[in-house]
């Protein structure tokens, strides 16, 4: 799985001009799945994100996690995270998992975050979404389970 984590002051999702989800201070997660991802990948992403120390402590250092601060989380599915631009000018999305595989995995990330105690809002899988955010910092972190797991094996 891939997850682009953005620390935000606020974020919202609109579908067909109607607001469907919004958060205040917290994290916007753009989450994509590939064909080989499993429940373990989704739970790994949730745990990693919930415990990332990317919020400021009393001295202004990034030393606190979403769990420490009670940050809110907005989870938005993003199949384009697996876009391949190595050939030509149009991205290929062959590596993106089909909806019947990706949707439950993205939802599992959200529910795993809730089980950890975070308030989670969700985009709408497969919908044409307008996502707005006020980035905080800016702080943007890339989480890729394949890369992280390979590093853990060496």
One letter per element, helices H and strands E, the order comes to EEEHEEHEHEEH
Query: In the CATH hierarchy, what is the superfamily?
Result: D-tyrosyl-tRNA(Tyr) deacylase
Q: Do you know the CATH architecture?
A: 3-Layer(bba) Sandwich
Binned, the helix content reads: 25-40%
Per CATH, the class reads Alpha Beta
Mean pLDDT: 95
Structure annotation, total helices: 4
Beta content comes to: 35-45%
Rounded to an integer in angstroms, the radius of gyration calculated over CA atoms is 15 Å
CATH topology title? D-tyrosyl-trna(Tyr) Deacylase, Chain: A
| Rough outline | globular
Structural class: alpha/beta
Number of strands: 8
What profile does the largest beta sheet have?
A: 6 strands, mixed
Describe this structure in words.
- With 154 residues, the protein is α/β, with parallel strands linked by helices.
- Helices cover 28% and strands 38% of the residues.
- The chain contains 4 helices and 8 strands.
- Strands 1, 2, 3, 6, 7 and 8 form a 6-stranded mixed sheet that branches. The chain has a two-stranded antiparallel ribbon with strand order 4-5.
- α1 crosses α3.
- The longest helix is centred in the last third of the chain and has 17 residues.
- The two termini are 20 Å apart.
- The model has no long low-confidence stretch (mean pLDDT 95).
């Amino acid at each position: 799985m891939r997850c682009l984590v953005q620390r935000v002051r606020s974020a919202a999702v609109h579908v067909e001009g109607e607001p469907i989800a919004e958060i205040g201070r917290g994290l916007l997660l753009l989450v994509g799945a590939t064909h080989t991802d499993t429940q373990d990948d989704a739970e790994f992403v949730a745990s990693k994100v919930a415990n990332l120390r990317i919020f400021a402590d009393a001295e202004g250092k990034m030393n606190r996690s979403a769990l420490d601060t009670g940050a809110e989380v907005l989870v938005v599915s993003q199949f384009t995270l697996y876009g391949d631009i190595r050939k030509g000018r149009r991205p290929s999305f062959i590596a993106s998992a089909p909806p019947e595989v990706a949707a439950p995995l993205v939802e599992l990330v959200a529910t795993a975050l809730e089980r950890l105690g975070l308030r989670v809002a969700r985009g709408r899988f497969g919908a044409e979404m307008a996502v707005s955010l006020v980035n905080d910092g800016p702080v943007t972190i890339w989480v890729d389970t394949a890369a992280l797991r390979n590093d853990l094996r060496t």
